[in-house]
Model the fold of this input.
Amino acid sequence: MSTKMTMTQKILAAHAGLESVEAGQLILVNVDRVLGNDITSPVAIREFERIGVKDVYDKEKVTMVMDHFAPNKDIKAAVQCKMCREFCGDHEITNFYDVGRMGIEHALLPEKGLVVPGDVVIGADSHTCTYGAIGAFSTGVGSTDMACGMATGKAWFKVPSAIKFVLKGKLNKYVSGKDVILHIIGMIGVDGALYKSMEFVGEGVAALTVFDRLTISNMAIEAGAKNGIFEVDDATLAYVNERAQKPYTVYKADPDAEYDETYEIDLSKIKSTVAFPHLPENTRTIDEVGDVRIDQIVIGSCTNGHYKDLAEAAEILKGKKIADHVRAIIIPATQEIYLKAMENGLLKIFIDAGCAVSTPTCGPCLGGHMGILAAGERAVATTNRNFVGRMGDVKSEVYLASPAVAAASAIAGKIADPNAVMAN
Amino acid sequence: MNFNGKVLKYGDNVDTDVIIPARYLNTIDKKELATHCMEDIDKDFVNKVAPGDIMVAGYNFGCGSSREHAPIVIKESGVSLVIAKSFARIFYRNAINIGLAILECPEAAEEIAEGDIVEADLDAGVIYNRTTGKQYATQPFPEFIQQIITNGGLVESIRKGAIK
Done:
């Protein structure tokens, strides 16, 4: 039977037990993993207990990561983590990640091989869309979906239509996946892909590392998308084969799959890009930013806390000092990344430059802890959202950028082009 | 399901961080959470909201974080219905899953003003602005979603065996 399905539609059809699906169809799918964190899981646990089933549908597939307000930022956060810990203990959930073993969930799951190509993953966290980078269908849901997923192993979806992004060319020095996705969000807007899939294909995909792809898929939600998925290639398989804890299936879109729109993106033309307050779509290229004095930088988060991100920042910070009026906070996304950064001397480079380095946490990204801003303060952050009050006071400002731009800005004391800082 | 209430109006891209700032997400107590509803966009919201009120907003309502605390605090504050030009997808499904009524209608959301008295019939997909006398038609929900709403949310649907 010939079909005209996108990558996403093929994965969804297979998980719904259907030959084919089409955009707009409502389906019930089997999920390969159900994820929650220390903020969303407590609400899900309360709902799970209302459902009245005794056990979770699969002790391995239910996954909880204590990353948002952990290490516990206050007594109430401690109570929420304790609730998750006890639930996972009572239900013998094997994939429970606590302080010391946890990392930021969307860096941790791919790293541990807990997500593989062709999977359907739901997570009570909007950045669950990250795993599209390795060819999985993954999407953010709420706590009730998580609870029902834990009980039944199923989730309901409206099959999305898709926007195709055909990538070509190669990124320039100091330009990375973050600049690509900010460029795209600036182009299509924060609801430009509302309810839809973003599918990334083309020869340019091979020129992007898996980590650049993780950053791009991670922020698909910032364009309103249901998911952001990359075609699987040799780089994906090299990454996955090192880690996968189970067999996997690679899905490709049908040659005649239908797309609502197609965009061609020439990676060689993308410049370092910064999203100004208070929406990720308010983008300017680095040559358009003007004079923006800053008080803080944050390098980390599920978007840009990978080893590659830290290495790019370290290249710029090596042997330099950050500006006196800037606080620089660097947060490796997982313990494995933290350890590698230590072994390879990155942490020394950061500390010598005047940066603070922290154990993994989402912390400042959502204004939780570890770097909250006062009224009037400005931060350049490699995080994913710059909404009003996102990192602290409603009168503070967050500028979203790549690790290279954040590092360069810390040295310059204002938003700066990595090329200019390295030329000095 | 029928609604009748006073309108509280907001703009485009109202994100879940302003609906319920993350700094308050260290509890799951609905009443405590609701004391911070809309705090970072409208400090006065908790004082002016009354049971049955209807929230009207622009495009992409509820964008950002997946926190279900956002529709929960809106519902807990007494808001009976949210009408928007469009909803961010996670907020949309969270609202349905917890039984907060929502309607997508760009024309109504554009024209209805703060303080207007509005009636709505969810099953028929009709919105009526009593203040201006203007009526609007919206798309009723697909049957699958109507069933979840009729059952009182996703948890109740599973409890009743509607989803296995």
Residues 12 and 49 of chain A are 28 Å apart (CA to CA). The mean pLDDT of chain A is 97.
